[in-house]
Amino acid sequence: MDPTVHVIDRGTMRIDLNYPIEGAVTATESEPNPDAVQTDGPVFNLVIETPATTLLWDTGSHPDAADGHWPADVYDAFTHADADDHPLPAALDEAGFALDDIDAVVQSHLHLDHAGSLHRFAGTDVPVFVHEQELKHAYFESVTGESSAYVRADFDHDLAWRPLYGDDGRLYEGIEWVHLPGHTPGMIGLLVEGGAADDRDLLVVGDLAYTSYNYEDGHPMGRDLLHSRPDWAASRRRARDIEARRDALVVYGHDPEQVEQLPERL
In the 3-class helix/strand/coil scheme, how is 112-173 assigned residue by residue? Predict the structure, then answer.
């Protein structure tokens, strides 16, 4: 029996286009002062049902993102105004699930728009899978102030951490993880056997690619969205190799057009 994959709507961020697409708005001699362009970036999670387990991919933004949970300068740049309209329990309920239905959580990485509802699993025995490099890096960045994309209050909880080591591995029957560093050191993707509606495999690359421009065209993300460009380029090559070998449907991190179509493709 193939897994069933559900899209969990967590609202929309508003950001400068130069973040997801490097040089999207560029000054030239003929246009030295181009207008800035903002774009929408949907925030979503996935629930993956198999005969053995119900797995949650990412936990989205904290509902108090606009009320001080996110640093003011970060919220000014990555504005998630409707985060409180899509808290995780309500978003799961809309898809026919409850928090108690979730058997395990997989965190692609621990940035504030992906790990903000981990507190919902604090004090439980629900395993939270995350790459060990990501967990170490997130704590280092959040306590030193090296990066404002990590909010320590998102992940500094009594959680049943299950660190992942190495480059790839099996989580459950038909579900594998793959290390895709670049956006962050511990970024991981998920490979779900038969996860698409047409029985193709599903490769969830998350913020390896904010949109199709990053993945299909190889256009790097800009500003502060790449921890390591060489690692990102290598991870993109790896993901495209997996896609080709498995004929997989690739799911990006925040692509508005793709997210709108996803429910019909899963």
Answer: CCCECCHHHHCCCCCEEEEEHHHHHHHHHHHHHCCCCCCCHHHHCCCCEEEEECCCEEEEEC
Instruction: Supply φ then ψ for residue 245, to 5 degrees.
Output: -70, -35
Q: How far apart are CA 212 and CA 217, in angstroms?
A: 7
Q: What is the pTM of this model?
A: 0.96
Tokens read off for 246: 């498995």
Backbone torsions φ then ψ of 256, nearest 5 degrees: -60, -45
Pairing outcome for strands 175-179 and 168-172: antiparallel
What's the full length of the chain, in residues? Answer: 266
CA angle 151, 232, 244 (to 5 degrees): 125
**Which residues, in sequence order, are CB contacts of 62 under 8 Å at separation 6+?**
69, 70, 83, 112, 116, 117, 119, 151, 153, 154
**What domains are there in the chain, each with its CATH number?**
4-265 (3.60.15.10)
Task: Indicate the helix (H) or strand (E) that contains 233.
Answer: helix 229-246
List pLDDT tens digits, range 86-140.
999 999 999 999 999 999 999 999 999 999 999 999 999 999 999 999 999 999 9
